Amino acid sequence: MRLLSEIEETFAVQLRCLPEIPAATREHTFLKDRKFRFDFAWPSCKMAVEIDGGTATGGRHVRPQGYEKDCEKLALAILDGWVVFKFTSKQVKNGFAYNSVEKYFKKTGC
To answer: pLDDT at position 9, please?
Structure first.
């Protein structure tokens, strides 16, 4: 299992401040024949959150091979019926990610 990033932990703490949202599954594998995992998932709702850290520092998510794998993962998730939110570290820090997830759950009632 991979080491969880500081920004993912920040988002996890933020989620705990939303008692009306069910607890997320961390590192959820969503395709049985692939190793792809979501950072945060709500399998019963088929909703997931991916936190792309390092976007401003040239991290894996913005390098060609990493970006291509992320695109493949997103496409396969959508084809499997998942709604996937992707957020940057900055969006976690400024509350955009937190607010988006809260609005999604309020809107869908999931």
So the answer is: 94
Which neighbouring-strand residues pair with 83?
47
Paired strand residues for 38 = 28
Reference 96, options 41, 45, 43, 51; nearest CA is 51
* pLDDT for the residue 54: 65
Domains of the chain: 6-108 (3.40.960.10)
Q: What is the token pair recorded at 67?
A: 């970006």
Assigned token pair, 5: 């990033």
CB 97 within 8 A of CB 11: yes
**Distance from the first to the final alpha carbon of the chain:** 28
